[in-house]
Specification:
Keywords: 4Fe-4S, Gluconeogenesis, Iron, Iron-sulfur, Lyase, Metal-binding. This protein has 299 residues and is mainly α. Helix content is 66%, strand content 0%. Helix 2 packs across helix 7, helix 4 packs antiparallel against helix 5 and helix 9 runs antiparallel to helix 10.
Length: 299
C-alpha cells in the first residue's frame, strides 16, 4: 500500500464510506492481492504479541543493562491501590506502556510498531481503551491498520528512525499513530482522528534521542509512557471537537525538517543529552565495565 499523505487516505475513506482503518485494510488487500481475512489474521497475531508483551513486562524482569525492570509491576500496584492520580484508561495505558517497554529492554518479544524503542505506546493506548470500553477485537485490529497507514505516511514524508530524526520520529510517531487509531475506536470521524494525530505529534516535536549507554532503557522506557499519555490527551481533545491549526501531514513534514536539523549527538549516538550527563556517563561506565569483566572471565 502506498500513500502520499494522510489527507489522501481521508479522502478515499470518505468517498467509500469507510473508517481510516477499514480503508487501509481494503487498500492493503488490493495491493497485495490477498483476502482481507488473511491480513486480519496477521494483525490479530500482532495484537496477541502485544498482549503477551504486557504480561511478560509485568513479571518484573531486569533489563539487559540493568537500568530498568520491575517499574511496570510497581506502577500497577500503585494504580490498583486507588491512590494513583491516573484512573481508568490513563492508568492502564501507563502500566501497559511501561510493561511492553520493559519487555523489550529485557529482550522479550514485542511488536516494533513503529520501532522497538517506541513499542509500548500503541499497545498502551489501544489495549487500555479496548478493556475499559469493551471494544471488540475486530475493531481494534482495524485500528491497528489505521495506525499502520499513518506510520507509512510518516516513513515516506519524514522518518521513523531515532538515528535519523531523534525520539520524535519514534515515540512521537507512535503517539500520532496511536492517537489516530484510538480516536476511530471511540467513534471519531476520519477528520477527528487526523486532528488527534496532529495534536499528539505536535507535542513531541523536537524530542531528541539520547539513550544512556546507547541502550533502549533510559530514558526510553519512560518516554513511552509520556507518548502514550500524550496520545490519550490528544484523542480526548479531538473528540471534544478541538482541532489542530496545522494539518497532520504538515506536522509530519515539520518533524522531518526538525530531524534533519538535529545534531548527530542527539540522534541515537549516546553522545549528547541525558547520555552525556555525569550520571549518564557513570551508568555507561558501570554497565560496560561489568560486561568487560564478564568477558574476561569467559576468556
Amino acid at each position: 500500500m502506498y500513500l502520499e499523505s494522510v489527507e489522501q487516505l481521508i479522502k478515499i475513506a470518505k468517498e467509500n464510506g469507510q473508517t481510516l482503518g477499514r480503508m487501509a485494510l481494503i487498500l492493503e488487500a488490493k495491493d497485495r492481492e490477498v483476502p482481507e481475512e488473511h491480513l486480519l489474521n496477521i494483525m490479530r497475531e500482532r495484537l496477541q504479541v502485544m498482549r503477551a508483551a504486557v504480561t511478560e513486562g509485568l513479571q518484573g524482569n531486569r533489563s539487559v543493562g540493568g537500568l530498568v525492570g520491575g517499574q511496570a509491576l510497581k506502577y500497577q500496584a500503585w494504580y490498583n491501590s486507588g491512590k494513583s492520580l491516573a484512573s481508568g484508561v490513563f492508568g492502564k495505558a501507563i502500566t501497559y506502556a511501561l510493561a511492553v517497554s520493559e519487555a523489550n529492554a529485557s529482550m522479550g518479544l514485542i511488536v516494533a510498531a513503529p520501532t522497538a524503542g517506541s513499542a509500548g505506546v500503541i499497545p498502551g493506548v489501544l489495549l487500555s481503551i479496548m478493556e475499559e470500553y469493551e471494544i471488540p477485537e475486530e475493531k481494534v485490529i482495524e485500528g491497528l491498520y489505521a495506525a499502520g497507514a499513518v506510520g507509512l505516511v510518516i516513513a515516506f514524508k519524514a522518518s521513523l528512525s531515532g538515528a535519523q530524526g531523534g525520539c520524535q520520529a519514534e515515540c512521537g510517531s507512535a503517539a500520532a499513530m496511536a492517537a489516530v487509531a484510538a480516536t476511530e475506536l471511540l467513534g471519531g470521524s476520519p477528520e477527528q482522528a487526523a486532528h488527534a494525530g496532529a495534536i499528539a505529534l505536535k507535542g513531541m516535536l523536537g524530542l531528541v534521542c539520547d539513550p544512556v549507554a546507547g541502550l533502549v532503557e533510559v530514558p526510553c522506557v519512560k518516554r513511552n509512557v509520556s507518548a502514550a499519555v500524550q496520545a490519550l490527551a490528544a484523542v480526548d481533545l479531538a473528540l471534544a471537537g478541538i482541532t489542530s491549526a496545522i494539518p497532520l501531514d504538515e506536522v509530519i513534514g515539520a518533524m522531518g525538517e526538525i530531524g534533519r536539523e538535529l545534531p548527530i549527538s542527539l540522534k541515537e549516538t549516546a553522545q549528547g543529552g541525558l547520555a552525556a550527563t555525569p550520571t549518564g556517563k557513570a551508568l555507561a561506565q558501570k554497565i560496560f565495565g561489568r560486561k568487560e569483566e564478564k568477558n574476561g572471565e569467559n576468556n
